[in-house]
Design brief:
Elements: E1 4-5, E2 12-15, H1 23-26, E3 40-41, E4 47-67, E5 73-81, E6 88-93, E7 101-121, E8 129-139
Antiparallel strand pairs: 1-8, 2-4, 3-8, 4-7, 4-8, 5-6, 5-7
C-alpha cells in the first residue's frame, strides 16, 4: 500500500515563530498549501520547531521537507506521541542545504502528535524557511 499524506485540513499546526510576525506573508499555512511560491519563514533563534496534531491516530513512515537553500536545518529531530502521552524521540534526520524536496524514511510509529525541531540552521541568525512539508503514512 502506497504511503499517503496524513496532513489534512483538520490537522492543527503550530510553529515556534514567524518572521516579524508577518503571518499573512510567511505563516505556517504556506508549508501545506501546495504553492511553490509561498513558504513559512521563522524568526531568528537557535532552535525553531513545528508541531502537528492530527484529528485521529496516524501511522507515519516518511517526512518530506523543502527548505530554501541558505535557510535550512542541518539536523531535524522528530518526536511523537499518542493522545495524553509525553513526546518521545522517533528519529533524527540530516537534511542538505538545498532547495530540493528531501524525503526521510522514519521508523513506523502510531501518533496523534508530531513535533519537528529544526536545529543548527545554515542561516547565521537561525532562521528557517520551509516551502513544503508533508508527513506520509496511513490513517487508522
Amino acid at each position: 500500500m502506497a504511503a499517503l499524506s496524513v496532513v489534512c485540513p483538520q490537522t492543527v499546526s503550530r510553529v515556534s515563530s514567524v518572521l516579524n510576525r508577518e503571518v499573512k506573508q510567511f505563516g505556517k499555512k504556506y508549508m501545506f498549501d501546495g504553492n511553490a511560491e509561498t513558504c513559512w519563514n521563522s524568526d531568528q533563534g537557535s532552535i525553531q520547531w513545528l508541531t502537528l496534531e492530527f484529528p485521529h491516530t496516524v501511522k507515519v513512515s516518511q517526512v518530506q521537507i523543502q527548505f530554501q537553500g541558505g535557510f535550512a536545518s542541518r539536523k531535524c529531530t522528530l518526536y511523537g506521541c499518542s493522545r495524553g502521552e509525553e513526546l518521545s524521540q522517533i528519529a533524527e534526520v540530516y537534511p542538505e542545504d538545498s532547495n530540493s524536496l528531501q524525503s526521510f524514511s522514519l521508523p513506523e510509529a502510531l501518533l496523534d502528535k508530531l513535533k519537528i525541531t529544526f536545529e543548527d540552521s545554515t542561516d547565521f541568525f537561525g532562521r528557517i524557511v520551509v516551502y513544503h512539508l508533508d508527513v506520509l503514512g496511513g490513517k487508522l
